[in-house]
Amino acid sequence: MSDLLPLFPLPNVVLFPNVFLALHVFEPRYTEMVADALTSDRMIGMVLLRPGWETEYEGRPPVYEIGCSGVITHVEKHRDGRYNIVLRGLDKFRILAEDHGRSYRRASVDLLPEPAPSADERAAIHQQRSRLGALLSPGSDGGAAETRTPAAMSDDDLVNALAQYLDFEPLEKQALLERPCLRARAASLVELLEMKIITARTPGPSNLAH
């Protein structure tokens, strides 16, 4: 990674390690960012915009300091300068300072590699995988059910892919990204899914006013 990582701040996207993300890039400052990345190390840092970004979007509104770097694995350039790209998530990072020398944002960052799970942690993560499979089965009430998660996918990749692709709020995904290790992320993912199932099955005020 070069000294300054290009930042792509978005209001609804959180990237996770080793997960793929397709993006359509059309703003001039970010098409410039992609063009520069393609002539360098192909690296871009995805960061989430903090609430209230709408009034400052054309400038440099605040972002969460923890993001995830990604490498461009596929690129398609349109005649009008727009890009379709695919990123593969690499490493979590923390923003240390931003550089304002270009039209797009760049930052010096501190990488936050997640520790390799111990044997006991691996066993715990695998148990969480089984729980996730039950929670995600069609018609699941959170009990035992046939697992619908891809058997060929590793526990690590499955946890990160579910954290990125499931229909969670951006702030919920950001909280999952910021978990310190894979075991903690898997546990939080299970808790979040259980909470959403309970919420979906709990009658709201409108359902009680008959």
Structural summary, described in words:
The longest helix has 20 residues, at 182-201. The protein is α+β, with helices and mostly antiparallel strands and 210 residues long. A 5-stranded mixed β-barrel has the order 1-3-4-5-6. It has 2 domains: 5-111, Archaeosine Trna-guanine Transglycosylase, Chain: A, domain 4, CATH 2.30.130; 119-201, no CATH class. Strand 5 and strand 6 form a beta hairpin. It is built from 6 helices and 6 strands. The radius of gyration is 19 Å and the shape is globular.
Tell me the overall shape.
globular
Distance between the termini: 61 Å
Give the count of structural domains: 2
Q: What order do the SSEs take from the amino end to the carboxyl end, as H and E? A: EEHEEEEHHHHH
The main β sheet shows up as: 5 strands, mixed, barrel
The CATH superfamily name of the largest domain is LON domain-like
User: Mean pLDDT, nearest integer?
Assistant: 89
Helix-strand category? alpha+beta
Residue windows where pLDDT falls under 50 for at least 5 positions: 142-147, 206-210
The oligomerization state is single chain
CATH class of the largest domain: Mainly Beta
CATH topology of the largest domain: Archaeosine Trna-guanine Transglycosylase, Chain: A, domain 4
Radius of gyration: 19 Å
Number of helices: 6
Strand arrangement across the biggest beta sheet? 1-3-4-5-6
Named at the architecture level, the CATH assignment of the largest domain is Roll
| Strand segment count | 6
Strand content is 25-35%
Helical content (DSSP H or I, runs of 4+): 25-40%
